[in-house]
Design goal:
By secondary structure, the protein is of the alpha/beta class. It is built from 55 helices and 31 strands. The strands form nine sheets. A seven-stranded mixed sheet has the order 20-21-22-19-23-24-25, sandwiched between helices. A six-stranded mixed sheet has the order 3-4-1-8-9-10, with helices on both faces. Strands 14-15-13-16-17-18 form a six-stranded mixed sheet, sandwiched between helices. α28 links the parallel β17 and β18. α11 crosses α12 and α20 packs across α40. It is elongated, with a radius of gyration of 59 Å. The termini are far apart.
């Protein structure tokens, strides 16, 4: 049972491999390949296959266990599976003949038979014979696998006959074939299967193979298998075929030709090799070793397969090649990096083309080695070449190995570098030439695309030479330059037009009308037009400028670091500290001075003569003066001495003063030059500041030879120079003296020096002896414009170079204190130096005794800023104008400078101000004395200025007062008193338009809520902390006597005091009977919160009504007082023009005005702006229109608090003008002439009404004709479609749709965004429905022609009067058909939309009537200035209402709808007067609001013309 359960053993076969064997004589130098064939079959792995198997053995090896004294080898056994899956074991025996390595004869064996007979033996036996592996095994059997040959006799089952078909080694193939034939005969006797193995077919000789095949074909059942043990081709096949012959149960053996089998085997090897190489390529570090990599890969199937097929040696070689490739690749990359870095190194070391253009590469290398930067670019290695050193591994060292530069590649780079420098030089030259070409093309404007310019330069030589990229780069640079220049010029232009911006309330925001005015003025400027293609940038610059005007700070100053405020603070912080420190050291011990050091300056020996005279009057250099003895140390120096400055001050001699002696005009001039030189030196070298503080004394020497006729001239010139130097002048005393110098002169001079020393000590004394340093007699503000082409040092030099200059209080970084003798006393003057933008807050809120306004005569913007600032300054405050330029020669050589200096001097003359000039190249005009007269003028007017300031403060704090508006004793009129003055003699400014929003005089109860600023404007006073607005003035303002809080202005326009004078003048010129007081209105009818003085003529009345003009609240009984056009008599019975003011009356002064009303130059500029923005009407028409404004005049939005008129396109004046009496008379005559002509001539036909342009930006869509915005495929403008779709999708039920105004900014933004991108989504913008509705209405308002043509208005008007409703509707339908097809389609679309809106009237409250009120002015574009048109407004509105209500009938052939309000469809009455009342509730856009013009207008209600 056990035997049955055992698995059957696989069959075992013994194969004997035989072939030619023997000595070298028999077989040649090499065998036939029996051993190799056996080796490849038994151990097929490449690492176990050995090419060398020697048969020459020593006796010991022959007798070893492997050979075992036999002439055969046991190769072991192989278990093989057939195609049918049956396994078998094959024992391989190789029959050979071993040769003795000593005798070279066959070894003696137990079997002494010849090889042929031994090889044919069918049974073999050898006790304990070991398996043979390789030749190295012999003698070292213990180091190899030991496997014994099976015990007993081993039966041979088949023979494998090997025939070598290669060329052989010293062997003839015929002899081999003869040997094989004999061997075959012997083998065939055994009756065992035989197969011929043609060995070494990889080196096959074809005819040998054919002979073998022929040999086999002659034998029965003899098969030839072509094999190659080296490439392992058909080795297994020959053994398998033999087994199939031995086992009859197996199929017939399939023999594969050598070439086919070789291809199959090689494909297998190639596949394995490819896989292995890919596996090896995963190694990226060329430092990796085979041992490390093989350990990692030994279990990988691709690795094992390749090792089996090709062996470890080949695998290692493959790996080594890969590592070498990695290394070479690394070296190649490093070399490439070095070569690529070489041009940069050459640019660094050899960038000068002129130096290297003719140098060879070796010469250039020598030059480079001498460069200081050589080591930073190159490295010199100790070992070379560089690629065989460890430098290749220093990847962080980017320096180039110097030995690399000897390669041809490096030399080529050098040559390319030289050529590149040459071509780059040429390229740069051509680019610059092209740049100059572009500069010559005048029509290139900022923002112009390159594509528009290229056609003009296509033939240019430079353009052809450079590349497209270069040409675009040059053009881009040129564009940046001209754009930057254009922006700078645009900014400069804005400053030149400062009057446009600085006449507004600084707490306001710019209104649309003000922006329109600004654009209207600026659009005439070429610098404005220059940025036409950059309109967004231009608008941004303008808004930025306006933002700076409203919120000026030194941080946001448009001049950046050139802001005057910053520079002044820096300069004063450095200069005043050094000045005080130097002065303190100089006069520290001067309180009780006993020794006086005097420096005597003269010419032609005068200095020595004076020194001798002083010594004559002294005793041992001690001089008695005023009861005290002084030791004198005299240093006379001739003015011509080259060592003048070096002798002036030494460590051993520090002068307390300098005597300057002269006796002629020449010596006086020479001394003046020396003093100027000393002070100039002091101003340039800050450490010599003491020289600027050195007291000088001018001494006139006596003419002892004869009485000189030049003495009066010398005296006069000397006194003038002393005044300029602010130093004493010692004159020649009266009488005749024999000597040049008198004792009285010397004493007077010494007293002056001692007083100066004492004063200097007082200035720097820690305990002030004159008065507290915080107090100032005068407060002066010096204004300069940021960015002016002069240094701050220049305008401050008159103060800083003065010995009487000191620092102001702590915290006042922009102020200094000046001690000057004005009149008979020494005064302390605080001078605050500010930019114009910082001075505005000071001008409005602080006590200032005088202004020094500095401007550059080289810059129009500087003068424009001065004009704008000066215009708003109170005319009681003295002003000093200072023009700055390089030298006096500029006035004669430069017309622009001459014009600006002349204008400044002219303005100064007009306003009775001081004018002077500072020259940067002249030291003489930098003295403090240039402002002496100005300071004197300020001192004279100090009391008046402070009284005016205090009166404002008093008015502010007074809650109720009887004296603010004193009443006439007669009780029937107000008492108007103006004091006589020179200013009053001038003609008053003409009348300015007064709208119903102008507050003339506040009620007494409200008077406490108002105050007057320095411009005379009233504004409300709130309980604001005093310092709440300090940040707006940058803490630049010195502490005022009584600070006034800066509060936001109200939206009420104030009337200028000069305008009041004009009104009073008009009242006084039309005497009438004095009316009795009108009874007061009931208290409940009076609105106490609104104290407007309303013009009575704004209320519609007939001729029979009284001609009262203004209703003014009584100050005591709160009753309305009528102001009539009558003569007002004061208590003395004198005729006066103007309102009475208690403060001006108590001080005997007129109420202050502004300088712009005193200077025609200042006001003419503002007037010129007005004329440009109101060019549609003449000045006379503007005056006339302004004086006949009625209550219907638009007041302006509360969001736009600017004082500019809302409807500037209709004419009108915004500011009072200054004109002479003659001009006024001419205007009156013209006015009368116009009236006469109007009476005589019939009224002309009204011109087509042109509305104002609402937009302030350029558009290629809005404002275009309707025909340009549609196509036959899309008859509705895209913008209209988007708006209507948005409204109907999101806001059809919005309450007050089309009635409630949307945000103006959002409306403009919608149109601007649509201008840029027509595909924009309104939903994504996040705007409200009302804003979109407003933008839609604005679209139709901006059309050149109304949607309903003017030509059909009259027909619509006539048709609407038809009584019968059906007939009227059919007639209207026929008129609609007359519309232009484009207008018809759009009109139909809009009316259909409005009909949908009206259907939701229960939620949106917008009936057809309400919608028609909102839309008819937009669709019909009425001319509200046409008085006849006003009578038909209700009719036009009813027409639009009918279109909305009957939309289905008019456009969709529907039935007539019954109107919800039949009255609305009735034709309105034709009475024009009755049509005025219904117009009041109309909700219209601001530019289109009608004026309520009465049928009969009262002529000249104020009697001014």
């Amino acid at each position: 049972m056990m035997a049955k359960n055992k698995e059957p053993r696989p069959p075992s076969y013994a194969v004997s491999v035989v072939g030619l064997s023997g000595t070298e004589k028999d077989k040649g130098n090499c065998g036939v390949g029996k051993s190799c064939l056996c080796n490849r079959f038994v151990r097929s792995k490449a690492d176990e296959y050995y090419l060398e198997h020697t048969s020459v053995l020593s006796t010991i090896d022959f007798g070893g266990r492997v050979v075992n004294n036999d002439h055969f080898l046991y190769w072991g056994d192989v278990t093989q599976s057939g195609e049918d899956g049956i396994e078998c074991r094959i024992h391989v025996i190789e029959q050979t003949e071993f040769i003795d390595d000593q005798t070279f004869l066959p070894h003696r064996s137990t079997n002494l038979q010849p090889y042929i007979k031994r090889a044919a033996a069918s049974k073999l036996q050898s006790a304990e014979k070991l398996m043979y592996i390789c030749t190295d095994q012999l003698g070292l059997e213990q180091d190899f696998e030991q496997k014994q040959m099976p015990e007993g006799k081993l039966s041979i089952d088949g023979f494998l006959l090997c025939i070598d078909v290669s060329q052989g080694c010293n062997r003839k193939f015929d002899d081999q074939l003869k040997f094989v034939n004999n061997l075959y005969i012997q083998l065939s006797k055994s009756k065992k299967p035989i197969i011929i193995a043609a060995t070494k077919c990889d080196e096959c000789v074809d005819h040998y193979l054919r002979e073998v095949q022929a040999f086999a074909s002659n034998k029965k059942n003899l098969v030839v298998v072509e094999t190659s043990a080296r490439f392992n081709v058909n080795v297994e096949t020959c053994f398998t075929a033999l087994v199939q012959m031995m086992d009859k149960t197996r199929g017939k053996p399939k023999i594969i030709p050598y070439l086919d089998a070789y291809k199959t085997q090689r494909q297998l090897v190639f596949t394995a090799t490819d896989k292995f190489e890919k596996l090896v390529q995963t190694v990226r570090d060329y430092h990796a070793t085979w041992k490390t990599v093989s350990n990692k890969l030994k279990n990988h199937p691709d690795y094992e397969e390749y090792i089996n097929l090709e062996g470890t040696k080949k695998a290692k070689n493959t790996f080594s090649k890969h590592i070498e490739q990695l290394k070479q690749e690394h070296i190649r990359k490093r070399k490439e990096e070095y070569i690529n870095a070489l041009p940069r190194a050459l640019n660094t070391l050899l960038s000068n083309l002129d130096e290297i253009e003719r140098l060879s590469w070796p010469e250039a290398l020598k030059v480079m080695e001498k460069r200081p930067d050589f080591q930073s670019c190159f490295v010199v290695l100790e070992k070379t070449p560089w690629d065989e050193t460890d430098h290749i591994d220093k990847v962080n060292d980017r320096r180039i190995p110097f030995d690399l530069l000897t390669t041809p590649e490096a030399e080529k780079v050098y040559k390319n570098h030289v050529q590149h420098l040459i071509s780059e030089k040429r390229r740069v030259e051509m680019k610059e030439k092209f740049k100059k070409t572009l500069e010559k093309i005048q029509f290139i404007s900022p923002g112009q695309p390159w594509e528009e310019v290229i056609c003009f330069v296509v033939e240019d030589e430079a353009f052809k030479y450079i590349t497209d990229a270069d040409s675009k780069e040059v053009y881009g640079r040129h564009q940046r330059e001209i754009v930057e220049k254009a922006k700078e010029e645009f900014q400069e232009m804005l400053f030149e037009h400062s009057e446009l911006f600085y006449d507004l309330d600084l707490n306001a925001t710019p209104s649309s009308d003000k922006m329109s005015e600004i654009h209207a003025v600026l659009s005439e400027e070429p610098r404005y037009k220059a940025l036409q293609k950059l309109a967004p940038d231009r608008e941004s610059l303008l808004l930025k400028h306006i933002g700076f005007v409203y919120h000026p700070t030194k941080e946001t100053c448009l001049s950046g670091q050139n802001c005057t405020d910053l520079k002044v603070e820096q300069l004063l912080a450095n200069s005043l500290v050094q000045l005080d420190h130097g002065r303190s050291n100089l006069y520290h011990d001067s309180a009780n001075i006993d020794k006086v050091n005097l420096f005597i300056l003269g010419k032609d020996g005068l200095a020595q003569e004076l020194a001798n005279e002083i010594r004559t009057q002294s005793t041992d250099d001690e001089y008695a003066l005023d009861g005290k003895i002084y030791e004198l140390d005299l240093r006379p120096v001739d003015a011509k001495s080259p060592y003048l400055l070096t002798q002036l001050w030494t460590s051993a001699f520090k002068p307390h003063g300098c005597f300057c002696v002269f006796n002629s005009i020449e010596s006086l001039n020479f001394i003046g030059e020396c003093i100027a030189k000393i002070r100039a030196e002091a101003s340039q070298i800050r450490r010599d500041k003491y020289m600027a503080n050195l007291p000088f004394t001018l001494i006139l020497a006596n003419q002892r030879d004869s009485v000189s006729k030049n003495l009066p001239i010398l005296r006069h010139q000397g006194q003038q120079l002393a005044n300029k130097l602010q130093c004493p002048f010692v004159d020649v005393p009266a009488g005749t003296y024999p000597r040049k110098f008198n004792e009285a002169q010397i004493k007077q001079a010494l007293r002056g020096v001692l007083e100066a020393v004492k004063h200097n000590f007082d200035v720097v004394s820690p305990v002030p002896t004159i008065k507290d340093l915080s107090e100032a007699d005068l407060r002066i503000v010096m204004c300069a414009m940021c960015g002016d082409p002069f240094s701050v040092d220049l305008i401050l030099s008159p103060f800083l170079d003065s010995h009487s200059c000191s620092a102001a209080q702590a915290g006042q970084n922009n102020s200094l204190m000046l001690d000057k003798i004005i009149g008979e006393k020494r005064r302390r003057i605080q001078i605050t130096i500010l930019s114009y933008h910082s001075s505005i807050g000071v001008r409005k809120d602080e006590l200032v005794h005088g202004y020094i306004l500095v401007y550059s005569a080289k810059r129009k913007a500087s003068m424009g800023m001065l004009r704008a600032f000066l215009s708003e300054v109170q005319d009681t405050i003295p002003v000093q104008l200072v023009a700055v330029t390089d030298s006096q020669a500029d006035f004669f050589e430069n017309e622009a400078i001459k014009e600006l200096m002349t204008e400044g001097e002219h303005i100064a003359t007009e306003i009775t101000a001081k004018f002077t000039a500072l020259y940067s190249l002249s030291q003489y005009h930098r003295q403090t004395e240039v402002f002496t007269l100005f300071f004197s003028d300020v001192l004279e007017k100090k009391n008046m200025i402070e009284s005016s300031y205090m009166s404002d403060s008093t008015r502010e704090t007074t809650h109720t007062s009887e004296d603010v508006f004193p009443r006439s004793p007669r009780g029937s009129s107000l008492d108007y008193n103006y004091p006589d003055s020179e200013d009053d003699a001038e003609g008053p400014p003409p009348y300015s338009p007064i709208g119903d929003d102008v507050r003339l005089l506040p009620a007494p109860s409200d008077r406490s809520k108002y105050r007057l600023d320095l411009e005379g404007n009233e504004y409300p006073v709130h309980s604001t902390p005093l310092n709440c607005h300090d940040h707006e003035r940058n803490h630049k303002v010195p502490p005022p006597i009584k600070p006034k809080p800066l509060v936001p202005r109200t939206n009420v326009k104030k009337l200028d005091p000069n305008l009041l004078k004009t009104i009073e003048a008009g009242i006084g010129k039309n005497p009438r009977k004095q009316p009795s007081r009108v009874p007061a209105a009931p208290p409940e009818d009076i609105d106490q919160s609104d104290n407007y003085a309303e013009p009575i003529d704004t209320i519609f009345k007939h001729k029979g009504f009284a001609d009262d003009i203004y209703a003014v609240p009584d100050d005591t009984q709160n009753r309305i007082i009528k102001v009539r056009n009558s003569i007002v008599i004061n208590t003395q019975g004198e005729e006066e023009n103007g309102f009475s003011d208690r403060i001006s009356k108590s001080h005997g002064e007129r109420r202050p005005s502004k300088y712009k009303y005193k200077s025609k130059t200042l006001f003419s500029k503002a007037k010129s702006y007005y004329r440009r923005t109101h060019s549609d009407a003449s000045d006379d028409e503007a005056f006339t229109t302004s004086k006949t404004k009625r209550k219907g005049r638009h007041r302006g939005s509360e969001e736009d608090p600017l004082l500019s008129p809302v409807e500037t396109w209709k004419g009108g004046i915004d500011n009072p003008a200054i004109t002479s009496d003659q001009e006024l008379d001419e205007k009156k005559m013209k006015k009368k002439t116009h009236k006469v002509k109007e009476d005589k001539k019939p009224k002309k036909k009204t011109k087509t009404f042109n509305p104002p342009i609402r937009r302030n930006w350029e558009s290629n869509y809005f404002g275009m004709p309707l025909q340009d915005l549609v196509t036959p495929e899309k008859p509705i403008p895209l913008f209209v479609e988007k708006c209507v779709q948005f409204i109907e999708d999101t806001g059809l039920c919005t309450e007050g749709l089309y009635r409630v105004s949307g945000n103006k900014t959002d409306q403009d933004n919608i149109q601007k965004q649509f201008d840029q991108d027509h595909n924009i989504s309104l939903e994504s913008m996040g705007v409200t429905v009302n804003a979109v509705a407003g933008a839609l209405k604005a679209f139709f308002a901006d059309l050149p022609d109304p949607l309903i043509p003017y030509s059909l208005h009259q027909e619509l008007l006539e048709t609407s009067k038809i009584i019968d409703k059906t007939e009227r509707l059919h007639e209207l339908k026929e008129i609609v058909k007359k519309f232009h097809p484009v207008n018809y389609d759009v009109f139909k679309y809009v009316i259909t939309h409005l009909n949908r809106v009206s259907q939701q009237y229960k939620t949106n409250f917008m009936t057809a009537d309400n919608l028609s009120i909102c839309f008819w002015p937009t669709l019909m574009r009425p001319d509200f200035e046409n008085r006849e048109f006003l009578s038909t407004t209700k009719i036009h509105q009813s027409v639009i209402e009918t279109f909305i209500q009957q939309c289905p009938f008019f456009f969709y052939n529907g039935e007539i709808v019954e109107a919800p309000n039949p009255v609305a469809c009735q034709p309105p009455p034709s009475n024009a007067v009755q049509m005025v009342e219904p117009m009041v509730p109309l909700q219209l856009p601001p530019p289109l609001q009608p004026q309520l013009i009465q049928s009969q207008l009262p002529a000249d209600p104020l009697g001014i013309i």
